[in-house]
Amino acid sequence: MAIRLEDKKQIVSEVNEAATSALSAVLADYRGVTVADLTALRKTAREQGVFLRVVRNTLLKRAVQGTEYECIQEALTGPTILAFSMEDPGAAARVLKDFAKGNESFDIKALSVGGQLMGADRIDVLATLPTYDQALASLMSVMLAPVTKLARTFNEVPTKVTRAVAAVRDQKEAA
Length: 175
Hints:
Blueprint: H1 5-21, E1 24-29, H2 35-48, E2 50-54, H3 57-64, E3 81-85, H4 91-102, E4 107-113, E5 116-119, H5 123-127, H6 132-174
Helix pairs in contact: 1-3, 2-4
C-alpha cells in the first residue's frame, strides 16, 4: 500500500523525535507473527514505556540520521519492528526478549545503546539491567549496610558487659 508524502514525513518526524529522547533501541524481525500477538506486544510495550513501531527501512534510515542510533542502519534488512526504551534503558530489550520466548518466529536482529550497534547475542546484557527503582533500592541497601553494622556493634558492647556480669554472678554463687 502506497503511503502519501505527508504521511511519510509524519512517520519520519515521529520516529526521529522518539530517537532523540530514547535510551536504547532494539530491532527485530517479525515475520510469521500473528496480528493478535503483535497487538499484545504493542500493549505490553505501552505499559512498559517502550516506543514500538513497524517502519519501512527507507523511512527508518531517514528518521535516525543525525541521532545516536544512526548505527542501526547496517541492520535494516527485511521486515523490521523498532523498539525504543524511553524511561528505562533495558525496557525494550526485556519486552522483546520476553515476547521472543513465546514466539519462535520472532527474531531479535540487533540493539543499540550509546551509539554502538550490538548483535542480538547481547540482548541478555541489556535486558538484565536493573530498573530505576531496583537500582535505587540496591544503592540504598549499600548505603544502609555500614550504618546497620555500626548499630549492631554498639549494641553488642552492653550485651557483652551484661554477659560478663552474669558470668561473675554465677561464679560467685557457685563458690
